[in-house]
Amino acid sequence: MKYLSYLSIGTLFGIIMTKSQAISWFRIYEMFRFDAFHMYGIIGSAVTLGAISVYLIKKFKLRTTAGDPITFTPKNRSIPRYLFGGIIFGLGWSLTGACPGPMYTLIGGGFSVILVVLFSAILGTLAYGMLRKRLPH
Q1: In angstroms, rounded to a whole number, what is the distance separating the alpha carbons of residues 44 and 50?
Q2: Where are the alpha helices (H) located in 1-137, listed in sequence order?
Q3: Model pTM?
Q4: What distance in Å separates the CA atoms of residue 43 and residue 30, rounded to the nearest whole number?
């Protein structure tokens, strides 16, 4: 039953991504050229919703479905680290036309060329996992 809820949420996410045109390569191209506000509006809405959600989770001390408390651990705020990671993420996004969330939606939409992007993302994650102990955090 738990996996059915995950499938339902993922399906809803895919529908929202498709209907909002967040998976459109053209919309992403417009964003990186600063030609349209569309994607910035979607991203801004997501950040706002995330901030409100975290506030509500903390205020009402919500728990996971397993009953465990949801905790937030403070991170080391290193500006160069975030800039470097953001640049790598942005370059990958602009080169492929897809960030990690919409990759699965694009595959589900029949854009099989994204399988190359998904495979590359998996390889990158594997490489990070192997090099993690040697990287500055």
Answers
A1: 10
A2: 2-19, 25-32, 38-60, 79-96, 100-108, 114-131
A3: 0.76
A4: 14
